[in-house]
Request: fold
Amino acid sequence: IAEKHGLVHLSTGDMLRQAVSAESVSDEIAPHISTIKNCMEDGKLIPDDIVVRLVLDRLRSPDCQKQGWILDGFPRTSNQAVALQNAGIHPDVFLFLSVPDDVAIKRVVGRRQDSL
Reply:
């Protein structure tokens, strides 16, 4: 969808992995890198306030402002949705993907494979 319409694809999972591996991140995110890393290692959700900061920081970047964007994996919680709205960001379109349980389980199980 992003490629077809020339939008910036913003995957929160990719953004979090990039933040952890980057040598430099925004001043807003830098103090939270250890929390992100620990949550990811423990398989826990990253706190809403950190994810919101990461996404809002990215949405303010010139490419997103110019091209538009598609959010992948955000918002996941009502708090994240409210924060997006409070920041004055109002998406035009929402897509809800209905995926059969067996397909969703297969995808989730595939993500949890040990890389060793």
